[in-house]
# Entry
Amino acid sequence: MRKTTVLLFLIAIHTANAESTLPPALTLDKSIQLAPNAPVQYTFTEGDDLLNVLGLFVIEPQKIVRLWGNKATKIHPGDTLSLLVEGDAPILQIKRGRTVKLSPMARSSREKREAPVIPTETIQQFLNRPKVITEEELEAAGYIIANGDERLLSGTGSTIYVRGLSEYSDEEEFIIVRLGQNYQNEAGEILAREAIYLGDAILESISDPFAEDDESDVTTLSITSSNREIQVGDYLLPLGERKFNEDFYPHLPDNLENAKIIAVVDGVSRIGQYQVVVINKGEDEDMEVGHVLAVYTHGERQIEDPQTGEAVNLPSRKAGTLMVFRTFNRVSYALIMKANLTIRIFDQVRIPQ
# Structure
């Protein structure tokens, strides 16, 4: 019993000393500007450069390093840097993480474990509504030809007239989408098409009751909700029963070849933490929700060898980590969990080593 008490006492002292070596929480004044799309939290990994990580949060990270002084060198893998707000003042705070090493051998397990902490509000819209439409679905989809207000745009409460819903005569609830970008590989092959969710609609009548011999195929619906303006030409798909796996248990795929980021949802060229990207692998190649993958720069930056004059490609570098949260036939949506470097379209995606 005494040995146990002494051991716990020593652990407590070690933990307190570890916390005391951390840089203090820093309230940012007006001279330090936050970086655009600054993350809420970042967990340090092996090989992280503090200046690069701080650059995700603030425009001039060197100011933070100078203010922290020698304690800035006390940061270790597993520590967490958080951006907090107290009143109107942003605060940078680092908390000590905990790294556990197993020996003499390590084993990977596909059993369920504690789900990672992810900003669910970032991906919720991708879980409860489709974001990819197949060619088959597009051919069977209905489309808006007019609205009851005789206006170009419609919104919540508007009546819309739709053709092409004959295959869905048993359905009453529909979603409204608009075609977005094509998800294609570097060779230009279209793997899938983006479906931008616009709103929901409910059936009012299937056809014109006064049409002779019931020849009219125009369906009347009412828009029950909308988050964007809806217009003639937008598509309708049945709501149906859409259940998606929202249990994100991280694990590694067995195999992965020639995987790349092919699109980013926001349409920006540089990708950071907690942004949603599209990769060119889906259910057809055994991608699963919860797959954790490493992102590497594609290594196409060329420099001239100063001695020989030859053009040399610089090697790939690990740029971050992503986790797959929704899969389709040929593509998957993934969330950037960590971004050590700037991530770009067509960066490589690999199984972490």
